Amino acid sequence: MICSTKSGSNWLDRLRFNKGIPTDDDLDLDSFLLRIAAHSHSPHTRPIHPTNNPVRKCPTVTHDPPLSALLAELFNPGTNLTLISKKCPRKQTNPKIFLASSATTSSHAPAGGDADAAVVVEDRGEEGDEGDEDLKGFTRSEVTVIDTSCPAWKVDKFLFRKNSVWKIRERKPKNKFFAKKKSKTSHEIDIHGIGTTKDNVVNIGGEKPVKKLKVI
Amino acid sequence: MGSIRGVKKRKKNDNKDDFIATPLYSQLHHPFDWWYHFSKRITGPLARSKDIEKFESVFKISRKTFNYICSLVEKDMLARSSNCVDLNGKRLSLNDQVAIALRRLSSGESLSTIGDSFRMNQSTVSQITWRFVEVMEERGLCHLSWPSTETEMEKIKSKFENIRGLPNCCGTVDITHIMMTLPTVDPESSVWLDREKNCSMVLQAIVDSDLRFRDIVTGWPGSVSDDHVLRSSTFFKLTEEGKRLNWGKKILPNGTMLREYIVGDTGFPLLPWLVTPYEGEGLSNVQVEFNKRVAATQMVAKRALARLKEMWKIIGGVMWKPDKHKLPRIILVCCILHNIVIHLEDDVQDDMPLCCHHDSGYQNQTCEYADNTAYTVRDKLSLYLSGKLST
Q1: Does A105 lie at the interface with B, CB-CB under 8 angstroms?
Q2: Average pLDDT of each block of 10 consecutive residues along chain A (216 residues)?
Q3: Alpha carbon of A181 to those of A177, B7, B252, B281, B290: distances in Å?
Q4: What is this model's ipTM?
């Protein structure tokens, strides 16, 4: 896996290759340094195309690729250096406090009194039914809705949201065997729900409890 | 077998200790009473609070209501009972467990605070509370239902008419937000952001004239509008199909048929069965007067929700990173407990302030949808109430 395309060459050769240094053994160092001075950037060292992300700008790369990218290329010769270099830093360079307003702006959530008119809600069927291809680009949230006028008063639903468009799907009920099997596993019951699993076993009309509670 | 015998023995002792119909202060402090011993075990700031020896000051319900709740959950709680013990290794009785769960729900204090107060591990508090919620939502749901008979509905209508004269009114609907904090890294956070920029879960309640919840819908994220919560509800579906609000009709003096309806604020659509106030400027005196009547009637729902949050503080404050699947169930159980207090005519209600602010900082939403027929009926109803409806 690590050695694929250039498995024949050793690490020093690959390093040289990536830096644009000739890999020949009879390297004329003086002529090479002169050539480097004349052409400050070799084609091998600039395969990077700065991204044009208006929301979150990555630092523009103007010099050699970072050492991490170089090492990655060194030990994963088959991978594309461009992809690695495009990766944004995990942490923001200028961290911003999460503000409700910024989140709402980006998601175009209704903010005014009459904004509801723009909200399109489509409520149909169960998740996995037809039309799931239309859900590309939607963010999915899972909710448990309680409606006391409904015989099955507790229903899990999926909310798909894209800007002001909402689509609602009912979650397929798990089969009984799976639910029971699942219930035998350890189950976090902290009422705060910190770090609890999203799987919520629905007790569909069950008289007897199917959950075996256990504090971890 | 040994453990089962032990459970039976404890159950017997619990029953012996119960004072079902005699909630007298002197009897509650009898050395044979469960509360006498339980109150002695309370430690920390709660133990130093005023009136600690008074049952109602700790649980916000009377002993009579407490005993009823114990009887309601007894079977299931004991069936699901595992080895719940306090820090001294003493096994917790049914009364102990119900008391701990009620304290958690009513005070909204953290698990660790409750654990410190009652000398037990916070995981035990969590386990007991969640078990209580699970049992209550099954056993107590009968306390939260739409009126099943026309006679029952007639009583409700009569009481509503006594408030500000609205005839044939069966209930009032309102929405409140259960606030919470969510991790900022949670990609779903924006879904839970409501229009006031708080993370919240919606609770829609239809309330009768005695402040009872008759229908609730909860679990929807705060960003969902009042209008949508209503339209997605089973109540909406049933009413549109003619299966709700379909009993007695009232005939106005000019022959207009007035069907049963509920009242709501401007966040709800104007429908043949949902009356909302007039909006806009330049309203006539008749319309202004009508709006006052509607607002006074809708105050019932606002008071019910305010009392709910005041009494069951776990949903009255801002919950810290709750499990969004468990929170609706906690809300449901708080609504059931609210109704039980009313059903049992608990005296603690008299001490509750009649506040109507349950969603401070939230402005009324505006729903522009209005049914044409409903316009006409509302006009005639307002004229009727002002005595100007010609025969």
Answers
A1: no
A2: 52 79 67 63 39 38 50 53 48 51 36 42 59 74 94 90 82 57 40 36 36 33
A3: 6, 27, 60, 61, 58
A4: 0.86
